[in-house]
Specification:
It contains 22 helices and 14 strands. It has 554 residues and is an alpha/beta fold.
């Protein structure tokens, strides 16, 4: 099959870039880049040129001509295929991002050990790019904006990225159609961490919806007698289920439950009675069930009324646990962060900068730890009764040991143990590292236990029940890292953890003062697991936290 010049030029262009990323012969790389440029501008199609004449064309020498022939005959270029096979898909995807060329991508991959755009975006949030040659603050900001723009056009979105858009669409519809009902439903209403599409139940008829969205440059993707699906320029899919007023509550309920939860309800003999219920509270009464909040309509355990307790609220967070200052890779001084906490009404701040193995994040040496602790003592005297706790986010090394000796670890009020390196592990390797770290008597909190980055990195495989059991046996808290790109531990395991009396800690992992607000996303995820404030460490008052830590150390 003949290939046009644009296709052939693209093959050479990609070959040149991948050679640069892999550090291969720079002379050859430049020659292929020049070939790509020249081929794209040729006045004749290479597919129409006799093979023996290819090398005589401007910008096409013998070496390039042989590869052109290979592409024309096979549709492929083996040298390119070989490099593609050796390159992680996420690294290839970085070539789509404006502002980072092959040389910078090589640094990101080989030196930073970042292999996906999600990881790179997270590294930007942590100010890590600026620590490497060729990356200043302006470059980092440009890369961050370019990645965020790219993600907006991929289809799936984090809850945090969807929230303001959902509110805007909802308000616009209610303003334009005041006589009709619109209620957000589906994944968004259940507070799921990843949103594939936004859904509404409405009493507005399909023709009116279709006319409105087409007038506002939305594309209609599907339409039937029960609803309509549209997509706007932001590449977010919107689904509308239409029904009359009498069926509204039942339709809202059915579309805001997981399949597992809905199947459980349908098995009840009272299921046929839900039609015509005016409110969901009335619907649950008709089912003979206690009211179950939307965010809990996921798993079977919620059918046991005794398990339903008031869940943690954002207002229950009493202090900021897990935060990074400019002593490592944060953006603010410890004093600035403490003053911001005081202004927000928090009782304490846990400063947990990176440990020494995290050289990429300016991790603290033993001497700098002593300096920081003296500084914190001075600030605590100045800011009391507010308290800054001395902590560290301590790397779990390859063998499961922590990054400092016991004599250093003993100087901290609490230790957050986290895996940051060599994330490509088997479950056996991951469990060896994690269990040994949990058993370390100085470990207070197990940080982001799977290392996942939503929509970017799956995280290393772990045996969650074994992790929970180990934390229960060693009185170790499990973090629910509240950064909306992490939300790790997964809320699906929270109920199992609290059943074993393991505390959870909703922590923002804040690298900026603005990052404190991420606690809210952690709370939304924790609610889905039924977490109560009593089982959340960051809901402890200052006095309660001091008592907990004293007991842990005794």
């Amino acid at each position: 099959m003949a290939q046009d010049n644009y296709y052939i030029a693209d093959q050479f262009s990609l070959l040149s870039k991948l050679m640069d990323i892999h550090g291969e012969n720079s002379f050859k790389s430049k020659s292929y880049s020049s070939a790509a440029f020249n081929i794209e501008k040729l006045p004749v199609q290479l597919s129409d040129t006799p093979a023996e004449k290819l090398s005589t064309l401007k910008g096409v020498g013998d070496s390039v001509a042989k590869k052109v022939t290979e592409i024309l005959e096979t549709g492929k270029l083996k040298a390119l295929d070989d490099l593609v096979q050796k390159t992680p898909p996420g690294v290839l995807e970085m070539l789509n991002i404006k502002g980072i060329g092959p040389k910078k991508i090589a640094t990101i991959w080989k030196e930073m050990e970042v292999e996906s755009l999600g990881e790179l975006l997270y590294a930007c949030n942590e100010n890590r790019l600026m620590l490497y040659k060729g990356f200043g603050e302006k470059t980092q900001n440009n890369v961050q904006e370019a990645i965020e723009f790219y993600f907006k056009n991929q289809g799936n979105h984090l809850f945090a990225e969807t929230e303001s858009y959902a509110a805007m669409i909802d308000a616009t519809l209610k303003e334009n159609f005041p006589g009709y009902r619109f209620e957000l439903t589906g994944e968004f209403r259940r507070q799921l961490e990843i949103i594939h599409h936004l859904e509404w139940v409405t009493t507005l008829h399909i023709p009116s919806l279709k006319k409105f969205f087409e007038a506002n440059q939305f594309t209609v993707e599907a339409e039937d007698t029960t609803g309509i699906t549209v997509r706007g320029t932001e590449n977010k899919k919107l689904i509308f289920y239409t029904c009359d007023e009498e069926a509204f509550t039942a339709r809202l309920f059915e579309t805001s439950c997981s399949d597992v939860f809905l199947d459980g309800c349908r098995k009840k003999k009272e299921w046929d009675k839900i039609g015509g219920a005016a409110t969901e509270h009335e619907l649950f009464t008709r089912l003979g069930m206690p009211w179950i909040p939307v965010y809990l309509r996921e798993q079977e355990w919620v059918f046991t009324p005794a398990t339903l307790q008031p869940v943690v609220q954002a207002s229950d967070i009493k202090g900021i646990i897990h935060s990074h200052s400019n002593w490592s890779d944060g953006s603010y001084t410890i004093e600035e962060m403490a003053i911001a906490c005081i202004a927000a009404g928090y009782e304490y701040l846990v400063i947990s900068d990176h440990s020494k193995s995290a050289f990429y994040a300016n991790g603290l040496s033993e001497e700098r730890i002593r300096e920081q602790h003296r500084h914190i003592d001075e600030l605590n005297e100045k800011l009391k009764p507010f308290k800054i706790f001395k902590s560290i986010e301590c790397d779990i090394l390859n063998d499961g040991n922590l990054d400092y000796s016991d004599s250093i670890l003993s100087t901290f009020d609490l230790v957050i143990a986290s895996v940051h390196s060599n994330l490509k592990m088997s479950e056996d390797k991951a469990m060896l590292r994690l269990l040994k770290a949990i058993e370390n008597p100085y470990t207070t909190i197990l940080g982001h236990p799977t290392g996942r980055l939503l929509l970017s990195r799956k995280g290393y495989p772990v045996n969650h029940p074994a992790i929970i059991d180990a934390c229960a046996a060693n009185n170790v808290v499990i973090e629910l890292n509240a950064h909306p790109r992490r939300l790790d531990m997964d809320w699906r395991w929270i109920h199992d953890a609290t059943e074993k009396n393991v505390l959870i800690s909703i922590d923002p992992d804040a690298h900026t003062i603005e990052g404190f607000s991420d606690c809210r996303y952690g709370v939304l995820a924790a609610q889905k697991g039924g977490l109560t404030k009593e089982n959340n460490l960051s809901s402890f008052s200052l006095r309660e936290l001091e008592e907990f830590l004293a007991k842990k150390k005794s």
